[in-house]
C-alpha cells in the first residue's frame, strides 16, 4: 500500500517557491507563514518579500497601527512601497512611526484611510523630505478635509509642478482602482487635484469620450485663464459611468442593480437580473445570486423572493 507522506516527512519547500514570495499580496504572504515552519523561518530572514507592502481587502478592515508597525518592521527599514487601501484603523501615529523608520519609501498610497488626518499626512511627508528623501507618488483621496493650502504644501514638498498634473497623464474614472503602485512614472505625482468645477481637493477625472476631448472651456486658475476640457471634474461635479468612465450628463443611462452609474452602452453589454433587468457593474458582480446556469437575481430581488416563499 502506498502511504502518503506525513507532515514531517515532507522536505523543505522547493526553492522556486521563494522566488514568488516578493510578488504575493500581503494576505497571501501572511497565509504562507502559517503553512510550515520552514516558510516561516525563510520569511523571517528574507526582507525581499516585505519591501512592497500592499494592504487591501480582506485585510484592510482589521489592519491597525500595531499590526502596521509589526509587519513593516519585517523590511528592516528598507520599505519602498506602502499601499494601504481603506485601512480605517490606521492613525497618524502609526503612519509617522513607519515613515520615521523607513527613509527609502518612494510610493505612499493611503486612499480611503479615514483614520488619518491631512495634518498627519503633511507631517509624514515633511519628515520624509527633511531627511532628503523624495516621495515619488502619494495617494490621499478619501482623506477628509484637505484644503487647497494642504494640497499646495504637499505639491511643494514633493516637487510637483501643478500645471504638469493637468497636462500630464490622463486620469480616468473607470481605471482608478487599478493599483498604480508599480506603474513607472517619471514625474512625481499625487492623486488629487483642485476640481475645476467646485474648487475642492478631490480626485479629478478626464473624459474618455471622443466628443468631449475637443470641447474646451476657459477657466480661471491661479490668476490665469487656462483652457480646460469642459467635463474635467470630480465625481460629484461630473458623474461618470462606472465601467467606461464617460461623463453621463448627455448620456442615456441603464438601470444599475448597485449604487453605481452605467451608461446605456455598458449596460447593454452586462448580464442583467432575470426579474428586474438591472445590471451590476463588474466591480459588484459578486452580488449576483445565481439562479440557474446563465441567469441570476440581484440581491434585492433575491431577498424579496426568499421573503415571499416563506408564506
Ligand atoms: Zn468638483
Ligand atoms: Zn459606460
Ligand atoms: Zn465628457
Ligand atoms: Zn433584480
Ligand atoms: Zn457597482
Summarize the structure.
InterPro entries: 4Fe4S_Fe_S_CS, F-box-like_dom_sf, F-box_dom, F-box_LRR-repeat, LRR_dom_sf. The protein is α/β, with parallel strands linked by helices and 311 residues long.
Can you tell me about this structure?
The N terminus is likely disordered. The chain has 311 residues and is of the alpha/beta class. The protein is globular. Bound molecules: zinc ion (ZN) (5 copies). This is F-box domain-containing protein.
- Alpha-carbon Rg, integer: 23 Å
Average pLDDT metric: 84
Q: What ligand molecules are bound, each kind once?
A: zinc ion
Tell me roughly what share of residues is in helical segments.
25-40%
Q: Walk across the major sheet and give the strand order.
A: 1-2-3-4-5
Residue windows where pLDDT falls under 50 for at least 5 positions = 1-8
Shape: globular
Strand % is 5-15%
Protein name: F-box domain-containing protein
Domain F-box: 6-53
Pfam family, one: F-box-like
InterPro entries: 4Fe4S_Fe_S_CS (IPR017900), F-box-like_dom_sf (IPR036047), F-box_dom (IPR001810), F-box_LRR-repeat (IPR050648), LRR_dom_sf (IPR032675)
